[in-house]
Please model this.
Amino acid sequence: MSYLDENVRAVIRPVKRMVEDEFLSRPGVIGVDIGEKVTAGRPTGKAAIVVYVCAKGPGQPHQIPAEVRGVPTDVVAESIVLHRAGMTRVSDARPGVVERHPVLRGGIGIGPARSFRVVPPEVERAGEFVIAGTLGAFVVTRDEPRKVLGLTTFHVGCVDDSWAVGDEFVHPSRVDGGVPGADGIGVLDRAALAGAVSAAALRMGARPFRAEVVGIGAVRGSARATIGSTVRKRGRTTELTYGVIESADATIRVDFGDGIGVRTLRDQIRVHSAERFGDHGDSGAVLVDADNFVVGLYVAGSGSTGFANPVEPVLRQLDVELLTPGVPESRRPGPAA
Model:
């Protein structure tokens, strides 16, 4: 039966969960998933426990068994990288090279106004750096008084362990020439890094905004990711790209850098594209299905493969709901003071 069949995946899921932590503890293993078994370079159409490794071959130390409780395994060489923008020295920021949006929408570049001290081995030479990511969509707090927030990822919104509520954000990012104060759009309001979620939300200021994603249109709400469905994302770097959801069972280990270290994200959405799906600077983009419902929050990837948080736990942990154009203006929260 097909690896996309939910009944097949439901049988494999508890076996995968039973072994994934032990597999992830082995040198070189960076992820465990459910996917298609490939033999001699040819897809078989059959489901397997897929183990992502930094490199594969007879000399590698991970030694994954050929099957677990009758479920075949498949070892795949993969690189899973957080896709905030590659750090740029403050002195190298280049004004006027990217989009500026007078009316804010999802899919645009943003970044913290503050800079970060980064030292080797993360960079070749120690110095002050700034970063960029993507504003995915707008959300509204569930608690009173209700506030409009901009959704992005933890590694864009917080970056390291020195973050604080109230940190200023700019559009465009400082990497792209944004200026603190003059280009300010809001401040960090809340964040979450646990389980399936790497997320942060910015309390929006007085800049006008629309509950839309550039190139996609109005957001209609949230929905569960469906295996085999087509999704779109609009990010700062690769802009509008398309892919197909191949899994919602990926467990991945990603390095959040100095101060936070390697963290495990579970039950991630895996997307495959015929071309490049995302790149550095796209973290924070939302995955949108064919009906314009948000299904995920893009966090990491490599070339044609992308990984995203499922949107429901993101909204739950941040205690927010998606803002849609259907909310009457009289009921919309006002801008942050």
Remarks:
- The longest strand covers residues 239-255.
